[in-house]
Amino acid sequence: MSEIHQVLHKVTDRIAERSVASRTTYLERMRAAAVIGPQRGHLSCSGQAHAYAAMGEDKDVLVKGQGGNLGIVTAYNDMLSAHQPFEHYPARIKDAARKAGGSAQVAGGVPAMCDGITQGEAGMELSLFSRDMIAMSAAIALSHNTYDCAAYLGVCDKIVPGLVIAAQSFGHLPAIFLPAGPMTSGLSNDEKAKVRQEFATGSVGRDALMKAEMEAYHGPGTCTFYGTANTNQMLMEFMGLHLPGSSFVTPGSPLRDALTTFGTQQVLSLSALGNTYTPVCEILTEKAFVNGIVGLMATGGSTNLLIHLIAMAQAGGILLDLRDFSELSEVVPLMARVYPNGLADVNHFHAAGGLGYMIGSLLQNGLLHSDVKTVFGDGLAAYSTEPKLLDGKLTWVEGPKESLNHAILRPATDSFQGSGGLCLLEGPLGSSVMKISAVAPEHRFIEAPVRVFHDQETVKGAFKAGEFTDDTIVVVRFQGPKFNGMPELHGLTPVLSILQGRGLKIALVTDGRMSGASGKVPAAIHVSPEAADGGLIAKLRDGDMLRIDAMRGSLEVLTDGVRTREAATAEYSPGSFQMGRELFAAFRDRVGPADRGASIFGDTTCA
To answer: Which of 33, 62, 248, 414 is the most buried (most CB within 10 A)?
Structure first.
């Protein structure tokens, strides 16, 4: 392993210095909670009887308190393909816990919604807020305080970040994240995208679109493109909360089941009843979050994680800002090409060497902190190994030292590009971010007049009416967290891609989010401050000139006098009383800006 890169040192030290007060307060809280310990031994006999009444053969272990009790927090539902495999996890986890001399209980469930299903629908306005709701739901599940450690079952977009926030709140407990894995490969993502574009232009009908979508999303497991869900899985491995090599093992396979069994017994061994007590607050350190950011950049991961990582870290008293991401992106090479950044899916990526190969290469080049604690033990080097079932026994062997497909995965020293997949844009409109890993260099600069819209449906209407005939920067505002919960605007991707394919210079500027699968069109997203919070984006008008320069990291307003104008307003529509959106009015009132995690908790989680 090489000496740590000086930029990693600098950024990590700056984060630690910035966070010293909040981190100290947080760790003091965790130490106090650890001293008190699980309450089940202090509960009244009536309270314990309530807690153990349905536990059958495990009652004796629980009453005696000699074995660890594992609390399972599950995001199971069978509407999400990624979460359907969790149906059978509790039984396997309980069996594994018994064999280790302990016990396990389902502490509670948390909601889990799919951004893919709610794209462009009313429910999408609940998506970002579901992250904080998941954190609160998990806190309720663990609040009975009868557990020595916790296992979190979650995969998709807001679920993992919400569960990490909860795990930080219970940071005195050891915790492990047990993934479900990706679905097997179906219709290629590139073929699916082509059919979507053909449908958008009317050249194929809905029957062809439906056939393509069903062939792409065809079975249990995570969607196979590299969006937010699979970026979450990468992060949990880079940050030491997954077992090494476990993120992209397909559901229902013997190896997947063996990893779940081993993970259960491993987290029980980390409890205060064992000899290697490792609470999650000692795993999720400043170095772990820097490692997560490095993984995000090296893989060209989802832009959603810029928001989520800030919120996740803040729950443990660690204060990240967009400058940290930007500076790390400048020195971390882009090592992977996975759709939408390439043609391969995550199964192809895993077969080429996957996360283990990447971690090994980054460690060798001083681009990861190796001296961290993980659920597997001390040090990140073990995460360059890969799990195997040899004669029916789970073991970890040396991972590949060479990529098995250089079109998908390359070493840090011979990367696809010398900097990471995300960049920070700054200028009069405030801050924004762009995922550039899939954006060709010739599209990273655009200077053009704007067309201003207040929702993505009117953009689609203008497209169908043939109104986009020249180079255009499409501005979609009043899509931030305070206004409507910051829905993803994934429905714009086919339209904008078609315009770009016609030879036009096209870009998007928005205070909303794009999908974790943001693609080839340059998109300055998460503009902060948002239109509903005094942002200058509310003063733009049709015809104003903007310049986006991803190479220089700038988003400039070229038209004079914009700042002195009256800001536009937009009313939250009467239709906002559908799909439960009215129940989240308090969240919209309280939520912070996107560049500080778009969290309703503010600083309360670490105060």
So the answer is: 248
Q: What is the spatial distance between Cα 94 and Cα 485, in angstroms, rounded to a whole number?
A: 38
d(CA 42, CA 378): 33
Peptide bond into 340 cis (omega under 30): yes
Tokens of 382: 């073990």
Cβ contacts of residue 405 below 8 Å, gap of 6+?
A: 344, 348, 351, 352
How high is the pLDDT of residue 571? 81
Does 156 appear as a known binding residue?
yes
**Model pLDDT for residues 9-54, shown as the tens digit of each residue:** 999 999 999 999 999 999 999 999 998 877 676 677 787 778 787 8
How big is the CA angle at 293 (ends 149 and 8), to the nearest 5 degrees? Answer: 110
Q: What pLDDT is recorded for position 87? A: 96
Domain 422-596 classified CATH 3.40.50.10610?
Answer: no
Question: Rounded CA gap, 326 and 596, in Å?
Answer: 15
The DSSP secondary structure of 413-478, one letter per residue, reads GG-SBSS-SEEEEEETTEEEEEE-TTS-GGGSEEEEEEEEESSHHHHHHHHHTT---S-EEEEE-S
Q: Record the pTM.
A: 0.93
Q: Which residues partner with 386 through β-bridges?
A: 397
- How many of the other CB atoms lie within 10 Å of CB of 254? 11
- Residue 566's CB is within 10 A of a number of other CB atoms, namely 7
Query: Residue 108: pLDDT above 60?
Result: yes
